[in-house]
Every structure is written in structure tokens, then in C-alpha cells.
Amino acid sequence: MLGILSFVGFTLLVAVVAYLATRKTNEQSSDGYFLGGRSLTAGVIAGSLLLTNLSTEQIVGLNGSAYESGLSVMAWETLAAIAMVVTAIFLLPRYLKGGLTTVPQFLANRFDVTTKTITSVLFLTGYVVVLLPVILYSGSVAISGMFNIPELLGVTETEALWICVWGIGITGGIYAVFGGLKAVAVSDSINAIGLLIGGLMIPLFGLMAIGDGNALDGLSILVQENPDKFKSMGTESDPVPFHTIFTGMMLVQLFYWGTNQQIIQRALAAKNLAEGQKGLMLAAFIKVLGPLLVVLPGLIAYHLFEGGLEKADTAYPMLVAEVLPEALVGFFAAVLFGAILSSFNSVLNSSVTLFGVDIYKQHINPEASELQMVKNGKRFGLILAVAAMFIAPLIANAGTLFDYLQEVNGIYSIPILTIIFVGYTTKRVPAIAAKVGVISGSLLYIISQFILQPMVTENGGTYPHYLDVMAILFLLNTAIMLLIGQFKPMETPYELNYTKQVDILPFKYVKEVGIAICVLVIGVYIYFA
Q: pTM of the full predicted structure?
């Protein structure tokens, strides 16, 4: 009972604080609703970035991968810091100079409206078919496992999954669709503090359980008895072979932190460039510590349960139930629930933004007022949330959750990254090249991973890792676009115009801080090598 009361109490506290912080924001305008009035400061941006990313698909999925494969999966966390540094120094100044609300808006300016629309539709399809359902499913697995919902309600595990999916989906839908970005970002910042505290408690109590009350002894036993699990450089049979760090891994990270609407929307809402860059750098530094939350618990679970769990993705919820004192379960569940809502809300809010700005206003009702654009975006968001709630339980047998998410995301992540990369680094590559690049990139990836790969592996052959495939297609599509640009260049070179919506004076020490973060990441790899 105490656990449930603390869960409800902390959840309500976050909602009340978010309401009080946002009640004066004008959310009838597109900037007010979609970008929080372009008023976010570094701390809020960093907290929102981290919690948008650090949800249960990350916590449950990556700890499940660590349970199976060891420390090498930390690449998903540590290399994110380098991608954030690149985003802060190279991409964000260009985004804010152009006054962007969505990333596809740049593609309309650089290429044409059709390219923007194709990209927005790709984003939205990926969100509703892959990302939103994975967030709902992983969140439901965690909540159901911690509160033992099947026993509590007297239902089957499948029924408990459906109940949790719809409970989270309805709550998150209301929060995101009616609260706007600032409500999401403020609640993120509060939950980020709770998640850091609660998240660090899990490995601490886990190590104490291994070391009979002494966490340092527990760590020593864990490392000594499981040496194969503590290697930063993955083998070819691991989810992240070491060589893929230099192929598709960095491309995925650059897409996620630099061009993915749900993430970059926080930085686009910065009050100025300096605050946006400081927010990204702060988040990058904290991200280096991410393996303590999303890798170490999986290794602890492997030791405590002696590698005997049927499904790797249950490792984290079972560890929480095993080591966390009962009085703290409600608080941690509330924090985790906040993380689930954060990611769900963030994706939903970005979907509303993409639809309202890039599709409704552009194609359905060009004469729409800002209020109409926001209202119709909200309606679309509700439809998207309901669709995701129906799809979520169907991915229960998709294999290791985090690997599934990353592989399927390649359908849209690499093509979009390619055309943005070419768009910013060239001035005469034409719109037709962007259309060819984004469509061919998606189709070639689908053919490679979902037609050719099963055929080859079923016949006993070997096939390149999906991260290697991403790198090959990135280079191929870039070459195709540049070749088209050579034969059919734009008559007038593209120039990025400054809209003067925010101050673009950079953070004074952005390069020095960025270099320090990159050195720190390399040091972590060398230490665990």
C-alpha cells in the first residue's frame, strides 16, 4: 500500500509543478505549443534530452542486452556524447539561424516541399509503427513486473500487458497533446532528477546484495567472477561488434541526437544558441555516466540470477523487485513511470508538430490560423496514440527489444541523415537528388534486412551486421546524390538565411568542452579494453 501511495503522490507532484510552470505560456500559437515559446534554458534542455532518451525501452532493453552480451553494449550510451558534441557545434547553429520548428522545414528551404513532406511522413510512420509501441510495451513490462500486476489484479500476463499499455498510453496522450512542449520539458526535468537518484539506487542495492551489504565488495566479486562480461570491445557475435563503432554506430547516434525531431525539438526551443549548446554539452557529460543506469544493472542481474532468465528483457524489472526495499518501490516506479511518459509524450508532441506544421498547414489547409494548426495537430496526436496502443502488445515476441528497435529504425534514420548531411555540406545538389536519396535509402534497407538477410542466413550463410549495412547505404546514397548534383546542379546555390528569431551567439567554450567530453569517452573505452 505504501508503494502505491508514494507512486501516486510523486506522479501528482510532477503534474502540479508542470502545470504551474506552464500556465502562463501562450499555447495557442505554434511557437508556444510546439517550442515552449522558444524559452528553454540549458538545465531544462539537458534534463528533457536525457529523460526523453532514457526511458524504459532504453533501461529495460539495454540492460537486457547487457545481461546477454556484457559491457560492449555501452557504446549506445557513451558514443551518444560525441554525437551531442557534433550536434552542438555543427548542426544547432544552423537550425537556429534558419528559425526551424521542425527538421524537415530545412529540407523544404534547401530542396523543396515534396522532400519535406516525404521526410515528415517517414518520421511519422517510424514513430507510430516502431517507436511509440516499443515505449509502451517496454514501459508496461517494467510496471507490470515491479507491481506484479497479474497477481494484483488476478489476470494473465497478456491481459496485464494490455492494461498497462492502455493506462500509460491514455495518460501520456492527455499530457502531451494538451500540455505542449513546455509541459513535457518541465516534467522531464523533475523526473530526470528522480530517475538519476532512483536509477543509481538499483546498481547500488544490487552490488550490496552480491557483497553481503558492501557495494565495493559486490563490485569486486562481480568483476572477478564474470570477467568476460566486462570488455568494452564487442566480439563479432555481440550486438555491437567493436568495428561497428566506426561504421553505422556513429551514423545512428548522429541521426538520433542531431536530426531526430523528438530529440532535437528540445534544443530548437532554446532561448538562444548559447543555452542550447550548454544544454547539449551538459547532457553529453551526464550521458558518459549512462552505463551505470542502463548497463551495470544488467550485469548484476546476470550474476544474481546466474544467467537463468528465460527472457533477457525481464532482467531489469526482476532485479528491481529483488533488491529494492519495498518502501522505495513506489517512488522508483513513479520515477520510471515519469520516464515512460516522457519518451511517449516527446514522440507524440513531435508527431503533432510534424503533422501540424509540415502536413496540415502545408497541404491540407494552407490558410489555417496558428490556432487551427495546433488544434488539428492535437487531434492527429490522439489518433496516433490510439494506433500505438493497439500495436504495442503485438511486439512482445520481437526478440531482444533494444536491438529490434535500432535495426527497424534504420528504415528511416539513415536516409534522412543522408539528405540532411548532403543538404548542409553542398550548395548545388538539387531536390530530385534528395527524393532519390531518401526513397532509395529506405527501399534498399528494407530489401537488405528483411528480404536478403533472411534468405542468406536460412541457407547457412553470413550477412553483414545491420550497422555495417547502414554505413554502406549512407555512402551509396551520398554518392548517388552527389552524382546527380554533378549532372544536374541547381542554377542558384543555396544560402542559409538568418531569421533572427533567437540570438545565435555561441557558447564561449563550446569547442573546449566538446573536446574534453570526447577525450573522456575515449578514456572510458581504453580503461575497459
A: 0.81
